[in-house]
Design goal:
Strand order of the largest sheet of chain B: 6-7-8-3-9-10
Oligomer: heterodimer
Radius of gyration of chain A: 23 Å
CATH topology of the domain at 49-78 and 97-228 and 245-261 in chain A: MetI-like fold
Distance between the termini of chain A: 52 Å
Radius of gyration of chain B: 24 Å
Number of helices of chain B: 9
CATH superfamily of the largest domain in chain B: P-loop containing nucleotide triphosphate hydrolases
Number of strands of chain A: 0
Helix content of chain A: over 70%
CATH architecture of the domain at 49-78 and 97-228 and 245-261 in chain A: Orthogonal Bundle
Shape of chain A: globular
Structural class of chain A: mainly alpha
Strand content of chain A: under 5%
Largest interface: A-B, 25 and 35 residues
CATH class of the domain at 49-78 and 97-228 and 245-261 in chain A: Mainly Alpha
CATH class of the largest domain in chain B: Alpha Beta
Largest sheet of chain A: none
Number of domains of chain B: 2
CATH architecture of the largest domain in chain B: 3-Layer(aba) Sandwich
Strand content of chain B: 25-35%
Distance between the termini of chain B: 35 Å
């Protein structure tokens, strides 16, 4: 019986994860390392990597800053509409990324009020970097907030108040008391944001226009190569993204063990008797 | 005087948590704020600290009105019930926090931290993290951290509420010694009447946001200003009686009450050790039945029921109890040697927590 269950788990993993990944690697490296490298260093591919990196970094920065501020406000303030806002946080998880893209087109597309206004300001939003950053921000928005809000609620305000009675100003309190307490959650949320930003496809496809060497990210390049029957090119770039994702997952696991070790410590039984 | 509070009130929405409280704390005094939970005592403490702002009234520290000063400007030390230590900092770093904020020089900080570790009985623990300490040690670190920047007053919110009974007793004695040594004006909040009596020079009894009484532990115990204080401090039997021709009658008992008119209802209180009991049903005038005997360690509590169904608590020390032969259920007789007519409260109090015999009563 036990053997049966273990076999089922193996088969499940093999069919869903190991098989496809192995096949991907075989396809990417099947023609030899030179063919793989040729595909990876093609100008379109390199541009795709850079664009993905650019979007990811900007989104990461914005998401960590605004995610932290949002979590602080939601956890520490009482205000009108708070429950409504808290309920909205998870919305990006339940909306399909393609719909996210369409929502942005409906908002700032040609012919709309906002779109016309941006047009007269000569600001290009749609089919350009700003739209791609906006949709990626939308789909990654919950990660940092969802990580930090429960941590902030759990640590409470007593140590911040203690710092205040010891003369610390709000900025000192944040840097020296709050931030160290939430840093692992912040790193966890940031890692999830990076992974999601690198892999985002649907929303970016809709708002980018998928213009070669202009608005084509790494995932869009994979898609385009596949459509153009350049299977080796698609697999090669996919293998690189896979490696990056794997690295991020490893970091995530490391953070998880580290942060759970920290929480366990803080609730552990006192080691020293008075 | 060190701290003066004048007509202080605090409203949370429509709830008045603290209403019209005034008192002063003398230089070097250790003053206890005592009351059941939700009585507003912690709110008073937090308003003095500046962690809560007052709805009305004035607070003075060192003769300076501090209402409009921020927490940081008030120069107070605050100790939280759950320690509120910085978990990611060592004991030394915790104690040094306030000093580094105030930009003390490194050698001075080092010296101050070492001195405080010594004073708090924590030598050698400077490099430990809070999670490596016991509850009692953590609270001492919290007190050291609060004292480090030399605050003009020390405010403690239920300082020993989170540690177990034995450690609590040790910490109390330690706090008294520390206060004798440092003489820093201190205000501490507690719901434990025993703790308040033992630790305070003077204490303030709170109930429902109001100041019920302020005085030395002995004054508050011997001469409660309100029925609430009588019930809350120590244990007291309380009966209600109607006055007829200068005498209050209840359950066959008669209490002289010449100052009250006929038909007036008064409440009479007597401490358990003011009831004398005899196993001989005819020894005293009043008959009763022994319902229950409770062992309290230093004494016994004997619960009796009078013929009219009144249940009274008596107290007898261990030696005396052992010389007598009381059996649960037997008829006994009793007499009340002292009583007091309780002051009438303006507003009737709801249910008051049932207080067991205080070990303070001999």
């Amino acid at each position: 019986m036990r053997g049966l269950f273990i076999s089922v788990v193996w088969v499940y993993f093999a069919a869903l994860l190991i098989g496809p990944i192995a096949y991907l690697c075989v396809q990417a490296f099947g023609g030899g390392l030179t063919v793989f490298l040729n595909e990876v260093v093609r100008p379109e591919a390199v541009h795709g990597f850079w664009l993905t990196a650019e979007i990811t970094l900007i989104v990461l920065l914005l998401n960590v800053i605004f995610g932290t501020v949002t979590a602080m406000v939601l956890a520490r303030q009482r205000f009108w509409g708070q429950t409504f806002l808290s309920g909205l946080i998870d919305l990006p998880f339940s909306v399909s990324p393609v719909i996210t893209g369409f929502m942005l087109i409906l908002l700032v597309g040609p012919g709309t009020i906002l779109g016309t206004w941006f047009g007269t300001m000569e600001m290009k939003i749609l089919y350009a970097l700003p739209a791609m950053i906006l949709v990626t921000l939308f789909v990654t928005f919950p990660f940092v907030v969802r990580e930090l809000t429960p941590i902030l609620l759990a640590i409470g305000t007593e140590s911040e108040e203690a710092a205040r009675t010891l003369g610390a100003n709000e900025w000192q309190i944040f840097l020296r008391v709050t931030l160290p307490a939430i840093r692992w959650g912040m790193i966890y949320g940031a890692t999830l944001t990076i992974a999601r930003a690198i892999g985002e496809f649907g929303a970016v496809l809709v708002v980018s226009g998928n213009i070669l060497q202009l608005t084509q990210t790494a995932t869009l390049h994979i898609y385009q190569s596949y459509v153009d029957f350049n299977y080796v090119g698609a697999y090669a770039v996919a293998a690189v993204l896979l490696a990056v994702s794997f690295l991020i997952l490893m970091i995530l696991e490391l953070v998880k063990t580290r942060s759970s070790a920290v929480t366990e410590q803080s609730i552990s039984i006192p080691m020293v008797q008075p | 005087m060190k701290i003066e509070v004048r007509r202080l009130s605090k409203r949370f929405g429509s709830v008045e948590a603290v209403s019209d409280v005034s008192f002063t704390v003398k230089e070097g005094e250790l003053l206890g704020l005592l009351g059941p939970s939700g009585s507003g005592k912690t709110t008073v403490l937090r308003m003095i600290a500046g962690l809560e702002c007052a709805s009305s009234g004035d607070i003075f520290i060192d003769h300076v009105r501090v209402n409009d000063l921020s927490v940081q400007q008030r120069n107070i030390g605050f100790v939280f019930q759950h320690y509120a230590l910085f978990k990611h900092m060592t004991v030394s770093e915790n104690i040094a926090f306030g000093l580094s904020i105030k930009k003390w020089a490194k050698p001075q900080i080092h010296q101050r931290v070492a001195d405080l570790l010594q004073l708090m009985g924590l030598p050698g623990l400077g490099s430990r993290y809070p999670h490596q300490l016991s509850g009692g040690q953590r609270q001492r670190v919290a007190i050291a951290r609060a004292l480090a920047p030399r605050p003009s007053v020390l405010l403690l919110d239920e300082p020993f509420g989170a540690v177990d009974a034995q450690v609590r007793q040790e910490l109390r004695e330690w706090l008294i010694r520390l206060h004798d040594e440092l003489a820093v004006t201190s205000l501490f909040v507690t719901h434990d009447q025993e703790e308040a009596m033992e630790v305070s020079n003077r204490l303030i009894v709170f109930s429902k946001g109001r100041l019920e009484q302020i005085g030395s532990p002995a004054e508050v115990y011997e001469d409660p200003a309100t029925e609430f204080v009588a019930r809350f401090i120590g244990s007291m039997n309380i009966v209600e009686a109607e006055v007829k021709q200068g005498i209050a009658h209840v359950a066959g008992l008669e209490f002289p009450a010449p100052e009250f008119p006929d038909g007036h209802r008064i409440r009479i209180g007597f401490r358990p050790y003011y009831i004398k009991l005899s196993e001989d049903p005819n020894h005293f005038r009043q008959p009763a039945r022994l319902r229950h005997v409770y062992f309290l360690g230093v004494a016994y509590r004997l619960e009796i029921e009078t013929d009219s169904g009144l249940i009274l608590r008596s107290r007898m020390n261990k030696e005396e109890f052992r010389q007598r032969r009381f059996q649960v259920g037997q008829p006994v007789s009793y007499a009340i040697t002292h009583f007091r007519i309780l002051p009438q409260d303006q507003a009737p109090h709801g249910s008051v927590p049932h207080i067991l015999d205080s070990p303070l009563t001999p």
